[in-house]
Each structure stands twice: as structure tokens, then as C-alpha cells.
Amino acid sequence: MDYRPRDIEKKWRKYWVENETYRVSNDSDKPKFYVLDMFPYPSGAGLHVGHPLGYIASDIFARYKRLRGFNVLHPMGYDAFGLPAEQYAIQTGVHPAVSTDENIQRYREQLDNIGFSFDWSREVKTSDPSYYKWTQWIFRELFEHWYDKGQQKARPISELIAHLEKQGTQGLQAAQSEEISLSAEAWKKMSAKEQDTLLMDYRLAYRKTTYVNWCEELGTVLANDEVKDGVSERGGFPVERKPMLQWSLRITAYAERLLQSLQTLEWSEAMKKMQSNWIGRSEGAQVFFPIQGHDESIEVFTTRPDTIFGATFMVLAPEHDLVESLTTPDQRAAVDAYLEYAKSRSERDRMADVKEATGVFTGAYAINPLTESPIPIWLGEYVLKDYGTGAIMAVPSDDDRDHRFATKFGIEIIEVIDKSDYPNAGREDKVGKMINSGFLNGMEVLDAIEKTLQAVEERGIGSRRVNYRLRDAIYSRQRYWGEPFPIVYDPEGVAHSMEISELPLELPELEDFKPASGGKSPLARAEDWVNLPNGWERETDTMPGFAGSSWYFLRYMDAHNPEEFASRKALDYWQDVDLYVGGTEHAVGHLMYSRFWHKFLYDKGLVPTDEPFKKLINQGMIQGVIESMMMQKEKVNGYNRFVCADLAAAEVDTEFVKIPVHVDFVQNYGTPGSYMDTDSVKHFTDWRPEFQNAIFECGNGTYQNGKFQPKGSADGSYLMTVSEVGKMSKRYFNVVNPDDVVERYGADCFRMYEMFLGPVEQAKPWDTKGIDGVSKFLRKFWGLFFDEADALFVTDETPTKGEQRILHTCIKKITDDIERFSFNTCVAAFMIATNDLQKEKCNKRAILEPMLTLLAPFAPHLTEDLWHQLGHSETVHNSSFPVFDGNWLIEDSVSYPVSINGKKRAMVDFPMGTPSDQIEKTALELEEIKKWIDGMTVRKVIVVPNRMINIVVS
RNA sequence: GCCCGGAUGGUGGAAUUGGUAGACACGCAGGACUUAAAAUCCUGUUCCUGUUGAGGGAGUGCGGGUUCGAUUCCCGCUCCGGGUACCA
């Protein structure tokens, strides 16, 4: 019987669906294991061969765990809200729900084609009201809670109100936007609106005016990680800073816990580092600098309190609250001009010229609290409103930016650290001895920091303080295709959360998805929906992309529960995700927000664990080969002119642009010798008719309008192209669809080839060339079960020791390698075992059957087919993984390499357990060894039992 | 700039605790089968040197170090990939 992947794969996929083979129960005596893939956004482009890499790895692991006796949860679903569908709707009028569903269907077909073991009965979709009901519900919970820094947990807002009524803000340790001090009487006297505003300072989901990344083109606000280099990540449109009233989530309340519990996670160090950098904890001091002639003082945060004697000026952010009152009349004009300038500067401008200091003097002076000398107060855009206190004490002697500023504006610089003992130390290095610093003189920097902290606290001019770079997450989007906020405003403008019984609040139907006027969401146009009969109004913003994906892994545990986001029983059984597989691009976005939400739910006692994802594996990107031709920028006599890459390099004065070419047209693509022959050029001009009359010039001659004019005896075009490795994308014409590979080689082959390409975590270019090796292997493996006449031929004879050794070597290797996520070496091990068994002409059931189970996670279809051919009526995927027996691997003898000074010179066999001294003696007497030690002195002989022998001579 | 990764044959990669560098594949070369081709199978394939054979030398980005022994550990560089940035 021939191996025909197309037939058997279809057959068994149908069988698995009909038999609900991958359906998982929440009721099981088996230990649980939760394997999760990162939520895909179903884009219109469908899957390319890079996407399934992680899914294949996790599928292998899930199937392996199942065979090892675990009850494995391995679900899949869709992050279905998002900008692209909405942009598409604006362009075409197709409702985002419709295009999203089409895309999902396409994804599903592509995923099904690869033979994954997902339990599709648990599929979730974030845009489904039965799902986003619970996204809204969690938001509502966040709105109804504040964070108690004393107890280190979230508490209900009602308890905060009770506290305020009883004793005002006294004794309150809360995470908040601005520190407030208030008496109980003052609280009680406040209007409802005033109380609402005050509570917003505490709520975990709150509304306030923030400077946001406003993108005019998209008509919406973007999160920091949706902005790259000052333009929107999607579409590349300009982004500017704009103050707007926005919903935010107080993730900063959890900064310390998010940082601390990173240590408990099995994530790559790189990943943890990225998160801890993002949180950006720094220890230092909060110090108050009195202002000359004012009651107020300026609060700064510094990590270098030791340098305070060198603080010769202060700098405030242009947006700082005190700017108005500090500015003196004669500086007024200059300050106003600077503020005008600062406002015009977008984030992008600021980034562009980081090196150039700008600023203006306010005319006011502060008093350095330690030197007691007056120091000038400046404004400068290098000080950021949102970081620390929005004001700094500037120490030009020990800070590069302060130094640049002081040099430019002629401000005094006092050296406070003698670094003569550290000739290589830079300005900001924390080394050296204190000078010109009063009571600190003579101390080492680190001691001086501690001493200053003490002094600052003793004198009551400040205190120790920990600062975080992490900012609260802006949670409003002025879009249609997202979760509506479960918030209504009364006529006073006070925000109220909707009753749980009123959820889900569904999106209203709209005809037109363009943003409404005044930077408002398209929802504002659904007046019937916005305006409630009682005169109240709905919030018209919607939630951002990360809302639905911040908790989806919990919903899979109990995907259709209408009463709760997941039942207590399901949560207690599944606990958390044991293995999470996905790309690094979510390092600080999704992974940070999910951890934050999870900790909040944990505080509420709603989930049993403090962290959602125990182990994380990051799959590398599969890249594509990008082939381009060099085209002269200017047309020549009205024709486009393409030239060979070599010629283009020689014509230094001519400007060229790279025109990407479909890789299929290019000969030897992906190599330095890639080129377009005459046929390729013809294909190209057929494909891109706008270049029909173009000139194609190479060393061999010139091609135009279907004719090749050779130079000399050349017989065709040899137009060199430029090869690069990069993103697989439509615009480079290098996208490879997994469906095409599966059609040609079968899903089992595709799965194994993706794994064989290299370590999962490493980025690598896709190249179909090597796939034949895997395809041959699968045929060979199949062939083990059949005789020359292609009839099934498997016997019940007792296997030989050699056959057992092949099997058990393979079991050990596969088990070890799956456990350490080394799937490429697994494939190699299967190849070795198959080659060896073929040589032995092994057809014993006792060997071949365990081999099937071993291979089942990798090649689920082929193994299922052979398993049934062997007479089983149950699926191979519910059989049990073969047990390794080390006894079969015990050898009678060991081959030792014999080295002279670490270089291998001979091999010699010894019976197992030969004593070292005898090994040493025999080794020294070997013919091949003697000639190396003749005339030399043997200094030492090292014998590592069962490993090697090294003879040291001189 | 700072923080992480990485660099091994013509190519993808292997070497798990410091112990035989190049497993397993691709490609290439030669051979078998075939009228022929495809498919399949066999042999060879790090480089240099050696007419064959045997042998010898070099070799894991570069330069040094530790060690009997280094792809693996340490120090200093180069290049590539990713993250991040007036962060006080």
C-alpha cells in the first residue's frame, strides 16, 4: 500500500470530528495540563507558513502530554475586534462583523488543514456579545475598585467611601493619580459631581484628562505601543500629543507586584528583562526645593541624592503646574514664546533632535536645601510631565543632559565627585569620592547616597521614594469595532456603572463607520442608543484591542457559561496556563495587561493563582526571501530602465529604487547568485503590465518588448537581483500559504518540516528546498509496515536486542527533547530510528507499535492510519506513550577515543566496567599511540570512565 | 547610548554537565536499477596538503586567557537580529 497523505489525512480528520477525539472534559481524575497559543487576530490576508510554527509546537506538546496521561486543555479562538476590519468597513461599507466572520472562516479552514488537536467546542471570539459581556463585567469591577497600598490589594469603592466619610483621607494608603488630603467634613460637603471627580483619582478604571497619542488620520487615540517612531503602527500616520478626557486603567498600582512575581515565572530572561525595563523601577529620593518669595516648593525625584551639592539649577517640564505662578514679569514674554514652541512639538519632533537642548529661564529662583544657595528655575522640554514629578534638580557635573543644558545656557557647573581613581568612568557612573559637598566630602558615592537619604529625611526636606516608569494604560478608543463601555452619565456628568443584569451592552447597528465630529467615536452618531429615556447618556468610546485578550485564557476553561466568566469549579480545576506559546511582539503589551487583570481577579478571590502564564515559549519569526530588481529612478527616453544589481552598484551617480519581484520568477532565489533569465523577465512583464515596455539591462545584453539583444555570444538575460531576508508579506510577493504546502506534501510532512527547520525560538527564513528530506522520511517510515508487494507485513515475533535498542534510544531522545522543546532534534531522532530499523528489516509489532505512539504527536494522520491498520479500533491519540527501559541500552563494551594533548588519535574498545588503570595501560601500548609518545615524556594520563582518554605528553 | 539574543561546512542545523566538532537533512558528485526519465537505493562530501593508499596540518566570527582538554567558562573586540530611550 502506498503512502497517500491526501487521502488518509482527510479521512482521519473527519474521524476525529465525528468521534469528538479532542473534546476535553472539566471533569477528570487525571492531572490537568493547559497548553495555550496566543490569540490570533484574523486578518484578511489569512495564515502564511510563519504563523503555524508556534501552533505546531504547542500541538505536539499538547498531544504528548495527553499520551502521558494528562487531561489537556488546548483551545483556540479569535481576537476579533480591531482596527483593520473597521478601516475596511470605512472603505467598503462592509460591516466589520461580516468581514471578521469571513476572515475567521478562512483561518479555521487553514488551521483545520494542519491537523491540530484543538477542542473547538470551546472556541471564543472577543466580538461575540456573550464573550464581551464578561469583558465589560471585568471593566465594571475595575471601575468599582481602588487599590489599598497598605494591604497590597484591590478593595471595593464602597469601602473607600466609608473611609472618607469617617476620617477623610487620613490613614489612607491608596494608589492614585495625585495625592489628595481631605477631611471627612470636606468630603461630605462635596457635590455628587465633585465626589465623582475625587473618586476617579482612586478607581482602578478611571477617567481623566491625559495627554494622549492622537492620530488624526485614524480619528483615534493610540496606546504607546501602537505608536512607532512617532507614527501609527498600523497605517503609518502622524501622531500628535493632545489633551483629552480618557478612560485609563491604573496598572501602576500593581507595578511592584508585576515586577516581583516575574521571578516566579519560567519565561526567558530576555522576556522578563523587557518587562522589568518597561516597569522601570528606580530607587531614590523625593526632595522639596523651596522657591524664593513663594509659599510653594518644587518636588523633584532623583536617583542621585549624593550630587545635590552640585545641583546648580532646576528644570520644570513646560506643562508643569507651577510654571504660571513662577514666571516673573520680565521673563513672561520669553516663557510664553517657549510654551508656544513646546506645544507645537510632536512626539516625533522631540525624538528627532534629542541632542539639542532647548529651554527658557522663568526668572524665579529656588533654594538648594543643602547648600542654601539660590539656583535658577528653567523650563526645558527634556523634562517630561508624566515621569517622576515633572521637575528635576539639575546636576550638570554628573548628568549628560544637564551638562548639555548648562553648557548651552551658561549655567554654573560645580564638580562634586573626584573620579581621578577611575580614569575610564563616564559622567554618570556612580564611582569616585565626594568633593565640594559639605558633610559628604571624602565619602564614596554609594555611601554618600545613603548618607544624603538619611540627611534629607532628618531635615524633613524629603524622603526615600521608589519611582516607576510604567504609566497607566489609556483605555478609550474613538472607534466602532470594540467593546462598548458599561458606563452611563447622569445629567450632572457623573459616571455610573451599568447593572450586571443589563450586560452585555451590545454595539448599536451603524451604516457609516467613520469617526464622528470632534474626535468622537462613530457610536456618538447612534443617537437613539446614546440618549437614554431618563435623560442619561451612554459612553461613546469603545475599549482597546487588549481588552478582550487580557482574560480570554480564563474563558476557555468554561467557554459557554452564561452566569459567570467561568465557574469556580472550572477555574479551580484548570488553575492557570502551564505552557503559553507566542511571539515576542506581545512582550510588554498583552503579557503585561493580562498579568495585571489576573492579579486584580486574584485579589477579588475570583481566580486561584496570582499569575496566569507559568511557562512561556517564544517562537521565532519565519522570514521570507525578498528579491528585488534595481530600477533607475528616472525614466530613460520615456522607458523604465531595470539594470543588473552589479551594474547598478557600478553606476554610483545614478539613483535606483528596489522593485520587489515575485520570488517564483527568480532563478537561484535567496542566494548571492540570484538572477532573472529571459523567461523570468517575460513572466515579470506579463505580471506587471505597467513595465511592459521597460528596458532590462545586464552584462549579457538588453531585453525589451519580448526581445533579447545579446552582447557577443551570450544566449539570454542574466539580470542579477538583490536578495534579502525579511518579513513575509504581500508587498514583497513572498508569502507562502500553508495550504499549498499541505496540498503537495501532506499536513504531517508540513508539520514535521516546520519543526525540522531549526529551534522553535529562533528566527529563520522559509525555504521549501529541504522539505523532500522529511517527505522521504515519512515514506520510509510508512514502508516499515509493508512488504515488497506493498501488503501490510507486521509480525508478533520477539524483537532482537538490537531492535529494542533502536526503539529505546528513540523513546529516550524524544521524551527528553519534547520536554526541552527541542523539536528539530526529535525529527532527526525519528529519521535515525527509521533508517536503523529499515537496515534491520524490522517488522515486529512490539517495535513498530510503540514507534507509532512516539510519532503520533508529530504526524497525527499517518500514525492514526497505520494504528488502525494494525487492528486497533480506538484512536492512537488516546493510547499511552511508550515507557523507556534503560536496560536495553546497556552496552557490553565502550569505545574510547584516545587523545594526545586533547587531539583524537585512536579509538579503542573496552569491556564495560574495565578499571581505569588497565584502560590507561592498554591505551599507552596501542600502535597508533606509541608513535606519538616515542621520544616524548608522558606527563599525565586522564581517563574519564565511559567517555574518553587523554594522554598529556611533552 | 543602554539591555537581551546570536555568529559552527556550499545551505538549514546537531553536539543536554567542559570530554570523539559537523548528528540529521538539503545540495552537490559518482554509481545501481531503467531504452530513457522520474522515483528509489548505494557510496562520497569541513578546508588545506598528500599523484593512489596511508598519513599530516588547520578548523566553531576576531584577539587573548583559564584547563590535561573549550563550540561550551572568563576578558576584550567585530558584525547581525530584537527590545528600549531626553526616564531624572
- Which overall shape is indicated by the principal axes computed on the Cα atoms? globular
Q: Low-confidence segments, ≥5 residues, pLDDT <50? A: none
In round numbers, the mean pLDDT is 88
Question: If helices are DSSP runs of H or I spanning 4 or more residues, what is the number of helices?
Answer: 31
Class by SSE composition = alpha+beta
Q: What is the CATH topology descriptor of the largest domain?
A: Isoleucyl-tRNA Synthetase, domain 2
Radius of gyration: 35 Å
CATH architecture descriptor text of the largest domain: Alpha-Beta Complex
| Major sheet size, sense and barrel closure | 8 strands, mixed
What portion of the residues fall into strands of 2 or more residues?
15-25%
* Percent in helix: 25-40%
The number of E-state strands comes to: 38
- What is the CATH class designation of the largest domain? Alpha Beta
Please describe the topology of this protein:
Layout (H helix, E strand, L loop, with lengths): L4 H14 L13 E6 L14 H16 L3 E3 L9 H10 L3 H17 L16 H15 L1 E4 L4 E4 H11 L16 H6 L2 H9 L4 E11 L4 E3 L4 E2 L2 E2 L7 E10 L5 H6 L8 H11 L2 E9 L6 E6 L10 E4 L6 H4 L5 H13 L2 H6 L6 E9 L6 E7 L10 E4 L5 H10 L7 E2 L14 E2 L10 H14 L3 E6 L5 E2 L12 E3 L5 E3 L29 H4 L6 E2 L7 H4 L2 H4 L12 H7 L4 E4 L7 H14 L12 E3 L3 E11 L8 E3 L1 H6 L5 E6 L13 E2 L1 H10 L7 E4 L2 E4 L2 E4 L8 E2 L1 E5 L11 H8 L1 H10 L7 E2 L5 H13 L17 H19 L3 H17 L5 H11 L4 H10 L23 E8 L2 E9 L4 H10 L1 H7 L4 E7 L3 E6 L1
Parallel strand pairs: 1-2, 1-23, 12-14, 23-24, 25-34, 26-29, 35-38
Antiparallel strand pairs: 3-4, 5-6, 5-9, 7-8, 9-19, 10-11, 10-18, 12-15, 13-14, 16-17, 20-21, 20-22, 25-26, 25-27, 25-33, 28-32, 29-30, 30-31, 35-36, 37-38
Helix pairs in contact: 1-29, 3-4, 23-24, 24-25, 24-27, 25-27, 26-27, 26-28, 28-29
The structure holds one RNA strand of 88 nucleotides.
